[in-house]
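Protocol step 4 of 5: obtain the predicted structure for the target chain.
Materials: sequence only (see below). No template structures provided, no constraints applied. The aim of this step is simply to have a reference model before the mutagenesis design in step 5. Sequence pasted as it appears in the construct record:
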Amino acid sequence: MPQNRPRVVILGSGWGGNTLARRLDKKRYDVRLISPANHFLFTPLLPSTAVGTLEFRAIQEPVRTIKGLGEYYQAKARGLDTEKQIVECEDLFKNKKFKVQYDYLCIAAGNKTNTFNTPGVAEREGHEVFFLKHLYHARAIRNRVLECFERASSDDIAKEERDRLLSFVVVGGGPTSCEFMSELYDFLRHDVSKWYPDLINDIRLTLVEAGPGLLGSFDKSLADYYLEQLLKKQIDVRLGTAVTGVEERIYHENETQTDSYTVALFADDTELPFSTMVWSAGLAPVKFIETSNLELGRGGKILVDKHLRVKGHKGRIFALGDCAIVEDGPPLPPTASVAEQEAYYIGDCFNKFYHKFDPSSEENKEVDLPLPGPVVPALLPWEYAEFLNRYFVKAVPYFEYKNRGAMTSMGFGGGVFDTTKTDLPMPEGAFSGVTAFLAWRSAYWTKQLSWTNMILIPMYWFKAMLFGRDISRF
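Step 4 output (structure tokens):
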């Protein structure tokens, strides 16, 4: 490879960072990636792993499978020196501090779960309260659910304690919350019920949403349909209800043992004892973004121009995905599709235009990176079909988001698929039931990055359908 290639440092291995790292021309750029996660996570399938419909390794791709990647650092970015063009990092294993120099920096750090400073949520996280953004979250949820059933099956347990152990609460009305609740329902009704038949009538499922409805970004007919289906399954759906706190209460204490239980407090002055709460109610910026000294916009996100460049840095710093917001642009949803399309745009700009500029030369130190020429937006969601994009959309020099539709599963055999506002060359409409379910599965199956996962995923789906999900806890 040519020497003295400009170094592009990418922060994050999610939809934005991973896609960009794969697309950049390694013959022209020295690409390096920094992330505490050494894998790309296919997040739309994450709720399925929390109950065993899919296994964890089937929805991840190791970072080191990126061809031509110059270097990978399993570390957290802790600071940024924009004058010296240095990212200050901390090793994930020994907390060793080190620095990484860059010519171009692409920040795709994502977001973290927002607790809205609700009392007790952060304190009980990992015990009775769980987030759902990473594989280790899904594993913890799966183990917690099975633990609760093992404890509830004891002969000498009080009825009040059994009812609490079998009370599961999901907070949030977005796609992740709804999909997890549907997956949990299937798991409990079709698998757990076989091994704990005496407990099935004691299970209580509660979905809590502070807003007036579920799936707020979907067509109202589909959101209403999803709500109707949850209610038919006897799931307690509480709309317009905010969680105001989580409390641990002691009911028995002596010199050797303290027994307690957890209670969810709601804005309507009601409360609900529970054993497991999955919190997926909002997003907040990660600490690196907050302390980066970059200009921030609404929601604490990095402010970028229509070319996804961070203002005031001469085109040396870019931001994309959930951690960025386009100045004076329409608000974009915090979805995988947006991050992926932004990565396509930046990658194409680098490969087609930015390679003509030498950022390391003395004469260019104070020169702004020239603006790119026209780039075809990434309309179609499959990389192998991107050559067709030029026939459906017009190339433009700035980032232009294209609506690919929205879909959410409803467990086995159900779902919703909204194409009422799509830019895809397909009929517009609101689809539900088996049609949406098949669209959801086929779309995500065909978007896998490796043949390994394209083989494993349908195998696990077939296993869950024919033989049931695994209830082992380890």
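Step 4 remarks: The chain is about 25% helix and 25% strand. The two ends are 46 Å apart (CA to CA).
Proceed to step 5.
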